[in-house]
From TrEMBL:
Pfam families: NAD_binding_8. This is NAD(P)/FAD-dependent oxidoreductase.
Length: 471
């Protein structure tokens, strides 16, 4: 029986394991940490019964991922739950911009930008399921739908600042900018519109849901599917050399490129080793988990109905803040994401106590304390917020890396998301998962399509491994 070892048990590693196991391989997943899941874990951080997501929280790509959808994870207990409003973006003046699953409902709230939003975003959303495999794979591979992908690429190659110019209202520009900022990159560079357009299209098609019980439920379902297919998992075992697992027919590495270079050592070609070691990481996240008493008193009440709230002010403020963090400067008002997961999943809260999830974009490897800045951004749009805080815990970029070695310097996205790294992730190839070492593949978020809980990096790498086995 063909054997496979997967090093790393994040969503990509586990997805790869399930794909290989269902194809008839004997799969063993090895995880260095004491618990599986990588960035998709949940815990009762501050009070029993109040569940916080440790990193990833909302899953517009996950719910629409061809990889996760094909695995039938509902049979293993995964349940998606949607808030009334997917995302809100409040402003200091005027009403908040609201992102609904419905393109029409979103557009209707954007005044004179109604038709522009429908035309620009609606068409991509309508085609999302058909384009998903192309959008969530290597950009230089042969596309399944070249004409439609070219239509998307025409917009995606623009800077986000260029796309934002087509909107006339502050609400539409801010809504687009807040979603585009998920990429942790400069928004005035070519290609920076692409991540935002993909997220918006996925969200309009599948919403921005949470996993019932916490993001860890996604990993639990993947592990169940793997075991059901005959796979096994070992935790608390670090693989430092390919020699430890070279008895397997194929090996998949759910690690960052520099770590892969260390594991493969002199088996990796000099050129490939240099490329992996040159892989550049992006800005970091600084996370704050709050335990709050009662619902948040947002100035705009509609924000109290939204699962995700983007706190960045106007589009121009977001652009300036993202430019700062890419340049290594801590902005006074960092772009901040807030999660109110209990709105979609009441099991996360107990009584009047709610788990408020938040993180700010900060420079790579930031060593300061961004907690006051995160709190101030929330207080800016929800006066009185400080009085609601019962307890809190902050997680620095260094601590994020301690929790998950793939979060190098606090980069939770697997590397920079500038145009170079979108196209050549981690190298320019229609099969960037292939390490060049026979039977060894990279399946982490350093490969296409990048960060997020969607399993596509793992599925794509597993399919490359299966082609190798069936050659």
């Amino acid at each position: 029986m063909t054997s496979a070892v997967v090093v790393g048990s994040g969503p990509n590693g586990l997805t790869a394991g399930v794909v290989l196991a269902r194809a008839g391989c004997r799969v063993h997943v090895i995880e260095a940490a004491d618990a599986i899941g990588g960035g998709a874990r949940s815990a009762e951080l501050l009070r029993p019964g109040v569940v916080h997501d440790l990193c990833s929280a909302f899953h517009p790509i996950g719910a629409g991922s061809p990889a996760l959808r094909s695995l039938g994870l509902d049979r293993h207990g995964l349940r998606w739950r949607w808030p009334e409003i997917d995302c809100a973006h409040p402003l200091d003046e005027g009403p908040a911009a609201l992102l609904h699953r419905s393109v029409a409902d979103t557009a209707d709230g954007l005044g004179e930008d109604r038709a522009t939003w429908r035309d620009m975003i609606g068409g991509i959303a309508a085609d999302f399921d058909e384009l998903a495999d192309d959008l969530l794979g290597p950009l230089v591979a042969m596309p399944r739908h070249p004409i439609k992908l070219a239509e998307f690429g025409h917009r995606a190659l623009y800077p986000a600042t260029g796309v934002a110019r087509v909107f006339r209202t502050a609400q539409a520009r801010a809504l687009f900018g807040g979603v585009a900022a998920h990429a942790f990159t400069r928004l005035d560079r070519p290609g920076s519109a692409a991540p935002g357009l993909v997220l918006l299209a996925a969200g309009h098609r599948h919403g921005w849901p949470v996993a019932q019980g916490g993001s860890g439920a996604i990993v639990t379902a993947l592990a169940s599917a793997l075991i059901d297919a005959g796979g096994t998992i070992t935790t608390g075992q670090e693989v430092t050399s390919i020699d430890e697992v070279d008895s397997a027919d194929v090996v998949l590495l759910d690690v960052m490129p520099a770590a892969a270079a260390g594991i493969l050592a002199d088996r990796l070609s000099g050129r490939r080793s240099r490329r992996y070691l040159a892989h550049r990481h992006g800005p970091a996240a600084f996370k704050v988990d709050y335990l709050v008493d009662g619902d948040i008193g947002w100035t705009d009440p509609d924000c109290g109905r939204a699962g995700t709230v983007h706190l960045g002010g106007t589009f121009d403020e977001i652009v300036a803040a993202e430019n700062d963090v890419v340049a290594g400067r801590m902005p006074a008002r960092p772009f901040t994401l807030v999660g109110q997961q209990w709105l979609a999943d009441p099991t996360r809260a107990t009584g009047s106590l709610r788990p408020l999830w938040a993180y700010a974009h900060v420079p790579h490897g930031f060593t300061g304390d961004a907690t006051p800045a995160v709190t101030a951004q929330i207080e800016r749009f929800a006066p009185g917020f400080r009085a609601q805080i019962v307890d809190s815990i902050s997680t620095s970029p260094a601590q994020l890396q301690q929790q998950n070695a793939n979060h190098v310097g606090g980069d939770i996205g697997g590397g920079r998301n500038d145009l170079t790294h979108l196209i050549a992730r981690p190298r320019l190839s229609p099969n960037p998962y292939d390490t060049g070492v026979p039977g060894v593949y990279l399946c982490s978020s350093a490969t296409p399509p990048g960060g997020g809980v969607h399993g596509m990096c793992g599925r794509n790498a597993a399919e490359a491994a299966l082609r190798y086995l069936n050659r």
